[in-house]
Amino acid sequence: MEEKAKRYGEEAIERAQLESIPNLYPDRDYEISISCPEFTCLCPISGYPDFAVISITYVPDQRCVELKSLKLYINKFRNQHLFHEQVVNLIRDDLVQALQPRRLSVEGDFNRRGNIKTIIRSHYPSA
User: Fold this and answer.
1) Residues taking part in catalysis
2) What distance, in Å, lies between the first and last C-alpha atoms of the chain?
3) CATH number of the domain that 74 lies in?
4) Interior CA angle at 31 toward 27 and 33, to 5°?
């Protein structure tokens, strides 16, 4: 069977990197909340898909996340085998590195599977 060329969206997701833009109001504290309701990754044990809503809330300092780069970055997880805790903490660490925010929290609200529901939260700075 002949291998098909990748579509432009698949290529964009593979190359995805978090990007930031200047905060236009660095002299004040204000909160940015972002919801990513179609998050998917794969269970590292079974390979079954896991679905979640990823919620990001942060108070920027000098930089804000560029939303298209965040969308592509989030979509990179769809073929990765990761535990729920890994997902949330990886996103937190990558956002902290890219933005150096004053405060940030990431929540992963994962769909039920096998009668188990998990919600993972990670904060910066740590309490």
Assistant:
1) 43, 50
2) 54
3) 3.30.1130.10
4) 145
Residue 65 lies inside a defined structural domain of this protein: yes
pLDDT score for 126: 84
Cβ-defined contacts of 119-127 (< 8 Å, 24+): 120/84, 120/85, 120/87, 120/88, 120/89, 121/88, 122/88, 122/89, 122/92, 123/92, 124/92, 124/96
Let me know if residue 12 belongs to a domain.
Answer: no
26-35 average pLDDT score: 98
Which carries the bigger pLDDT value, residue 3 or residue 52? 52
Please state, in angstroms and as integers, the Cα–Cα distance from residue 28 to each residue in 23, 31, 80, following that order: 10, 10, 37
Do residues 90 and 103 make contact, with C-beta atoms less than 8 angstroms apart? no
